[in-house]
């Protein structure tokens, strides 16, 4: 299971949240603002490193695979290492920022139990936020799959051509061409023209269709070969738009033999 969130806003929000919590708990009561800043900067990598290691390594690699013994063991090791690192930060703070005295330091900053509790509280808050983000991503995926299923169950494309509704089976469509405000549907039987924009049509097509250019949508099952710049459907060669190349590569690279793949890359 892939645990890492694809949404960068999650990471930005979490880092800002950690900084705010550390500032409130350990930074506000210092007499020296510069010393408080240095302390937070030294503590931040320990907190973020522990949180990301726990949530993106231990959870997916052991907990999600039901390896509970190893998950518990490595979680314990992680706890020991993180507390050790916090102790180093604390000692460094006492020596260089506190002038060998705990009295001028923030009282919470000199409490190793408070440091450990705060660290793992932030780790578990990170787990909750990550879980919430993954739930939203799974819900979006489920909605997408349901939409794809609904499109495939229909099995044909409905468009208005010559002032009447025309039904074109998906498996008969080779590719669709944009002609400004019109489209031309190239099928194995004929060509059908309709007054419609290709961008509107794209949302009604199932996943077997792939847009390769602002002017072309192709049926992936009809593609005989492809390269870096074009796809071939039958005897027709269609250009791949620059902004579509990455999407085309990801969609088609597993559908072809090594010869076609190597010609693309």
Distance between the termini: 28 Å
Count of helical segments?
7
Strand order of the largest sheet: 5-4-3-7-6
Strand content: 15-25%
Structural class: alpha+beta
Number of strands: 10
- Percentage of residues assigned to helices: 40-55%
Morphology: elongated
Largest sheet: 5 strands, antiparallel
**Radius of gyration from the alpha-carbon trace, in angstroms:** 29 Å
In round numbers, the mean pLDDT is: 79
H and E string: HHHHEEEEEHEEEEEHH
- Unreliable residue stretches: 1-5, 258-265
* Number of structural units classed as domains: 2
Description:
The structure is a single chain. With 265 residues, the chain is an alpha+beta fold. The protein folds into 2 domains: 8-151, no CATH class; 156-264, Beta Barrel (OB fold (Dihydrolipoamide Acetyltransferase, E2P)), CATH 2.40.50.1020. Helix content is 54%, strand content 19%. It has 7 helices and 10 strands. It has helices at residues 8-27, 33-63, 68-97, 112-154, 198-202, 245-252, 258-264, and strands spanning 156-161, 164-169, 173-179, 182-187, 191-194, 209-213, 216-219, 223-226, 230-233, 236-239. The strands form 3 sheets. It has a 5-stranded antiparallel sheet. Strands 8-9-10 form a 3-stranded antiparallel sheet. A two-stranded antiparallel ribbon has the order 1-2. 23% of the residues are buried.
Notable characteristics:
alpha+beta, 2 domains, five-stranded antiparallel sheet, three-stranded antiparallel sheet, 7 helices, 19% strand, disordered C terminus
């Amino acid at each position: 299971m892939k645990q890492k969130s694809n949404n960068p806003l999650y990471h930005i929000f979490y880092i800002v949240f950690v900084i705010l919590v550390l500032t409130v708990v350990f930074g506000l009561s210092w007499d020296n603002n510069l010393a408080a800043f240095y302390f937070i900067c030294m503590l931040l990598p320990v907190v973020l490193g522990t949180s990301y290691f726990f949530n993106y390594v231990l959870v997916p690699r052991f907990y999600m695979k039901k390896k509970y013994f190893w998950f518990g063991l490595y979680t314990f090791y992680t706890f020991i290492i993180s507390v050790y690192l916090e102790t180093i930060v604390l000692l460094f703070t006492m020596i260089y920022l506190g002038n060998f005295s705990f009295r001028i330091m923030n009282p919470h900053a000199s409490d190793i139990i408070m440091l450990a509790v705060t660290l793992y509280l932030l780790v578990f808050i990170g787990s909750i936020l990550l879980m919430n983000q993954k739930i939203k991503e799974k819900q979006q995926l489920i909605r997408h799959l349901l939409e794809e299923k609904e499109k495939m169950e229909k099995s044909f494309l409905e468009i208005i051509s010559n002032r009447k509704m025309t039904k074109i089976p998906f498996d008969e469509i080779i590719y669709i061409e944009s002609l400004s405000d019109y489209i031309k549907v190239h099928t194995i039987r004929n060509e059908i023209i309709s007054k419609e924009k290709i961008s509107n049509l794209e949302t009604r097509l199932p996943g077997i269709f792939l847009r390769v250019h602002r002017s072309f949508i192709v049926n992936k099952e009809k593609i005989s070969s492809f390269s870096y710049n074009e796809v071939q459907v039958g005897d027709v060669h269609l250009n791949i738009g620059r902004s579509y190349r990455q999407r085309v590569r990801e969609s088609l690279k597993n559908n072809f033999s090594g010869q076609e793949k190597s010609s693309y890359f």
